[in-house]
Every structure is written in C-alpha cells, then in structure tokens.
Amino acid sequence: MSFTSLGLSQSLLKTLEKQKYITPYPIQKEAIPAILNHKDVLGIAKTGSGKTASYVLPILMNIQGISLKKTRHIAVLVLVPTRELAVQVNDVFKLFEESLPERIKTLAVFGGTSINPQMMSMVNVNILIATPGRLLELIEKNAVHLGEVEILVLDEADKILNAGFKTEVNKIIDLLPPKRQNLLFSATLNDDIGNINQILLHDPVVIKIETEEKDIELINQSVYSVAEGRKGPLLRHLINSKEMTQVLIFTSSVARADRVADKLKKNNIDAESIHRKKTQGVRTNLLTKFKYGKLHVLVTTDLLARGIDIENLPWVINYELPRSPKTYIHRIGRTGRAENPGEAITLISQDEEQHFRVIENKMKKRIERIKIDGYC
Ligand code: AMP
What we know:
- By secondary structure, the protein is α/β, with parallel strands linked by helices.
- Helix content is 39%, strand content 16%.
- It has a seven-stranded parallel beta sheet with strand order 3-4-2-5-6-1-7, sandwiched between helices.
- Bound molecules: adenosine monophosphate.
- Adenosine monophosphate binds next to α3.
C-alpha cells in the first residue's frame, strides 16, 4: 500500500516522496482517512509509530477548507507535554506545509523561555503547538483566542496528564468552541485517558498500534555486570571499542548526567549533557546537533526517555537503572524504532542486580550478564 490511496493531495504526495516516506505506517493508514473524514480519533500509539505525520498530513488537508482568520484566533491547537515535543511537531508541520497552495503559519510555544517573543509571533498564527501552562499564560495576556479552534490535538495525552497538567487541560477545553474535531494520541490507555476520552471525543475511530513488548523484540539488549566504581571506564571502553558515533546515555540525576558528560569530554569523547536545568535554547541546540550527527554522545536524565524522536538511534546506554521497569522500556525504546534494529546496553552494579531482575520479570525476558576482566 502506498500513500496515494489515502486521499492526500498531489503536492503533499510529492513532499512525502521527497522525504522518503514510501509506505504509510499502520497508524497512518488508519488515521489519515479517518481524520480527512472529519472523525474524532483515539490513537493508542507511541513516538516512533509515525503518529505525528498521521495527524499533521490530514490536518494540513482539512485546514484548506477552513476560512482562516488573520487575527489571534487559531484554527488548530496541538497540546503537547514538553518543549521538545512542541519543537518536533512544529518541524513536521513545517516540513509539509510548504506544499500547500495557501500560506499557513504554525508556531510552537512553551514555558521556560521568555513569553514576549512568543506573544509578538502570535499574530496570524493558524496552527499553534503549545504546552498547556504557557498556552494559558498567553490566553491571560490576550495574545491568543481559542474561540475559533476547529481541530484539537492532544499528543502524548498520557504524559500531559502525568505531568500534572490536568487542571490546565480542563481550563483550555472549557475555552474551546463545542463543535470541533478532536484527536487524542496516547502511548497507553489508562484511567485518565479513558476519562478525557469520554469528555472530549465523539464517536471516535479507535486505533491501537503495537504494544511495548512488541517493540522490545526489535532491540538487542545487552547487560554488563560492573563494579560501581568502574562504570565510567567501562562506558568509555564500550563507546570506543564499539565505535559509537550516536549514543544516548541515561543517568539517574542531573548532577550525574553532568559528571558523566564531563568525564567523557576529559577523555576526548564528544559528549554533552541535557536535562531540565539547561535553558531551552541550549537544549534545542544540543538535541539538533545530536540528531544530525554533529554531537556523538548525549547524556541525559529521564526527561528524554519518552516523546523525543531521534531517527534510527543506533545506541542507548543505561548508565544507571531507572526506578520503574516502565521507564526502562521507554528508555530503550529510543532505539530499535520504526523497524530499524537498535542496541541497548545496560550497566549494572551488584547493588542494582536485584532491581534489574524485577525489570526482567516485567519484560518476561532474561538477559545474560557480560563480564569483562578489569571492570567487574
Ligand atoms: P513519530 O512517531 O511521529 O515520532 O515518527 C517516527 C519517525 O518515523 C519520524 O522520524 C518520521 O520522520 C518517520 N516516519 C513517519 N512516517 C514515516 C513513513 N511512512 N515512512 C518513513 N518514515 C516515516
């Protein structure tokens, strides 16, 4: 099956071809026709499934039938949990919107950065991608109005609600006109999502794509037993001996992420840390460099465990274990995505051994421990 049978315009099809999107992913096959048909959609799919294009493409088609107001009234609102996802979704809109006959203006707004430039940029925006807190601030300042919204998207809805944005989301929903198309995407279907689904969606097309377990099969996992004090040297040994040129490393704290990155740099490995204490500008910059292969090693906390799409990431290393097995699965899910195999390496000290067994039980998978002389 190709994109041609999904109802998209010739110019969008051309851009898809240029971007080497040849075959639609399963979520796209189902969501694109449903959204073009103005149906509400509940998509249970995580990042890596192609969910962003599954709503961006039909929205860009549908928006051509909407009379766009040249004011601070937006037509499409996409709510996202993080700044990184806001930037990423905006990039996908920008990638495809150039093939539209009419100029469309999209903008990503998020907290942690000055509100003034965002207020200035709000004029004539048609598609707004926003984190809930910052959106409410902009509404309070009269910089944006939601009274004309025709399409609402909640992307990574589970994460929006987990991040404590429930009140904000409810306030935002109250400001929307009653008649609109609603698209809700979530990695999981929990009680919160069930509730919001009932409030928000009318007779939705429900699309459920792949389970986490299935994703795991795509990832080659290896586990190294290591003495706690030898994790740094083993990490350097692995990066060098396996010639890793794009690796995402997870640590358990901001301070540890900084320390690990510093130590790598001192040993002439091209590394930086990224976490919530860095400014938005620095984060976006580092992420872009890393995505495009201009930075080899990115050390992070669980901030990036979900939601960030780095295409075909070949390596993920758990320098330390996360608390929950679910987070472990999300971390290693940064690799082996979109049908490309990936490698996930986990370093475990004696103290972490028991906790890793809990993770193995959850995955229903046992992984052999590798021991290298001099490191364990
Ligand atoms: P997403 O789940 O939206 O974050 O998308 C995951 C990755 O898959 C992104 O890097 C997209 O550029 C890529 N992608 C999405 N759909 C397709 C497709 N049909 N063919 C090839 N790549 C795609």
